[in-house]
């Protein structure tokens, strides 16, 4: 007589994290992609900061207490002219593209954030601390970066020091995490054949073997997606974000595809029809400040000075330069054709016949960041560095800096001061303007 069949007990979930996709292999794949991209983000971020020449002037330096963290700073070059455009295009576009990968990586390791007990030993406590700094730092850097690029930075506080210090904290935590986990990551990547996973459908998807990683559920649910599908979904998300972001840096017809670019998708037409970050109205520029009473004051050593009207500037030798505008938010223009007076020729008016020094540039703008900046000697001496009076064959519009603005090769957009009122060559103190 056959014994009665025993009904199998249902398997109960050990917590809410039951996806059969979670495991060391998938986590390591996302981690490998981030490990390739995050160092590029960090490097381009450091280069972006160096482009402001923060060690030249307190006005350029938005992170004055950086101390040893500024060890790498160098004189930002003017060649090639597209250097900053490339740097910021890569930095911002790559940062946006990596968002789906970052979110997927966090999803894959979320069970680790809720392991109990939270601390089992000193070594475990240090590991948990590095994980907290890693996850918190990653979210902070990506959120603040996206806010700055997309919403004119609505996060409380100053973007520059927050993003700068946050990058160092996050990168330190990332370095510690990689040092601790790299051997395990390599073993996990080798544990499964990548091509085989891409050929595995949902019906044949199985959980990874149980191990001590804490990522594999002890009671996995039935799969509703394959690992191939998960990787494809993340990859498609990154591709879609690239498609709606990269056009702001690449320009041309692709600018219309930059749906995530708030600056200048439709900048208008005509010679002045290219993006602008800060309009005259936003900068509180009054028409009377730029009218017939406007004068440019050029100062040099020993009290030498020259006061020039707009007509005086037009009477000087005019030069042309084809240069882009590129901003920290990642947007840039194609080359615009500028025309005006070379900075080194203005330095000659006040006692520098050759080898002019740096210059302190002040704007009519009454308040706000970068209403005054300092430029290095190498920037002044470059023949393409102009006090521009015209662009693309037309007089500058008010929003583009009428009656005169700075244009310097490879410099961040905010260093190309608009509505210029005074140039001081060889200033011993590049301090706050009066």
From TrEMBL:
Keywords: Membrane, Transmembrane, Transmembrane helix
Annotated transmembrane regions: 25-52, 90-110, 131-151, 163-182, 230-250
Renumbered residue ranges of the record's region Disordered: 197-223
Listed Pfam families: Oxidored_molyb
Domain called Oxidoreductase molybdopterin-binding: residue spans: 291-428
Gene3D superfamilies to which the protein is assigned, alphabetical: Oxidoreductase, molybdopterin-binding domain
Lineage: Bacteria, Bacillati, Actinomycetota, Actinomycetes, Kitasatosporales
Lineage top rank: taxon: Bacteria
Protein name: Molybdopterin-dependent oxidoreductase
